[in-house]
Structures are given as C-alpha cells and as structure tokens.
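A reminder from the course coordinator: this example appears on the midterm review sheet, so study it carefully.

Given structure:
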C-alpha cells in the first residue's frame, strides 16, 4: 500500500516562500536598525555631551596648575592652598593628601631650628612656611619626608590624582635614594637644611 505523500498545492508553497522571504527581510532590517540606531544614538549623545561641556566648563579646567599657590605664603593662603609640613611645600588642594599628611604628622613632633648649631632657636610652622626662610631639622625628618613622598606618589598614581611637580621629578627620588642609602648620619642629628617650596601641581 502506498501512503499518499503530504502534498501542498503550488499556491501554498508560494505563500510559504513569500513568508520566509518576508521573515528574512524583517530580520535583516531589524538588525540593521539596531546597529544603525545604536551607533547613531551614541554619536548623538556624545555630541550633546560635548555641547553641554562647552557651555559649562568645569572650574578645574579653567584653573592653572602651574604654581597654583603663587610664590609667597600670602598668595598661597589667598589661593586656598595648604602648607604641607611633610613635603615642606604649599600645595593646592588637588596635590594635598590630607589623610596621609595627618598620619605622618603623628610621627612627630617635627621641630625646626634657625641654625644647625645648638644655639639655633625653635621656629614655628608659620615662620618656616614663608618664602625664602631657611630652617634646619633632623635627619629623621628628612628620612620620614622621603617615605611620605614615596607613599604620596603611589597613592596619587593609584587614584589618578595630580602630583606635586617636585615629587614627580626623578631628582627628588635620586635625593631620597641617597638619604636612604646613607645610614651613617644619626637620625637625631640636625643636619637637614630646609626651605619651603611652591611647586606646580601636575
Ligand atoms: C652621608 O651624609 C653625610 C652628611 O650629609 C655626608 O657627610 C656623607 O658624605 C654621606 N655619605 C655618603 C656615603 O654619601
């Protein structure tokens, strides 16, 4: 016995074929629209973002970070800068690591003198923060200053923060390397000559 083959009429086949073609076209159009719109939307959002930014520049972008504290203690205070005892410099807020500074200040008290001789008188932080003033301090301060700078640099790098231009310079690291390697200087000896700096904040 022969089973009758399920046969479709040629009309039905044409309809099925048409539906398949329509399905493929719809699919391709949808994919095309999704990609087209996505790219277009991203581009459009980017253009809107750029417009908004150009209308409202951030105060950060307008500020100069080349010697942002000026070159005197007075101009530094007026610019809202902080006297960083551990880096011995006036720093813009963007270049001041308050938490790190606080923890290193606890390692003190840090004392500053007008001369390396026993005759040298104690100087206040306010006095030594003035441009051009020379003060003297212990080797312990110098070593701790270098450790502070080392940590500050790593923290700034991790967080993408700006960095005091002195700290960022290789000369500072070379100087600190010599300090670390030279273990012949007693830590309590007053041998370190200081003067405050007004670095750029890069
Ligand atoms: C270590 O430092 C002292 C004091 O600054 C200096 O006199 C001495 O030459 C230094 N030693 C070396 C090996 O650099």
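Designed residues:
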């Amino acid at each position: 016995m022969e089973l009758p083959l399920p046969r479709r009429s040629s009309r039905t086949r044409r309809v099925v074929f048409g539906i398949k073609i329509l399905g493929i076209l719809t699919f391709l159009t949808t994919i095309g629209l999704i990609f087209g719109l996505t790219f277009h939307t991203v581009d459009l959002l980017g253009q809107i973002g750029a417009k908004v930014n150009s209308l409202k520049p951030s105060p950060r972008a307008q500020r100069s970070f080349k010697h942002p504290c000026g070159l005197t203690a007075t101009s530094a205070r007026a610019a809202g800068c902080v006297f960083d005892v551990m880096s011995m410099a006036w720093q813009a807020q963007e270049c001041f690591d308050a938490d790190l500074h606080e923890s290193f200040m606890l390692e003190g008290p840090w004392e500053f003198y007008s001369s390396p001789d026993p005759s040298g008188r104690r100087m206040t932080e306010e006095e030594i923060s003035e441009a051009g003033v020379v003060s003297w301090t212990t080797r312990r301060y110098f070593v701790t200053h270098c450790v502070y700078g080392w940590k500050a640099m790593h923290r700034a790098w991790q967080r993408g923060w700006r960095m005091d231009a002195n700290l960022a310079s290789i000369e500072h690291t070379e100087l600190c390397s010599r300090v670390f390697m030279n273990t012949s200087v007693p830590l309590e000896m007053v041998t370190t000559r200081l003067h405050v700096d007004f670095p750029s904040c890069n």
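The chain has two domains: 10-56, 64-195. The beta strands are 82-84, 89-91, 112-113, 122-123, 134-138, 190-195.
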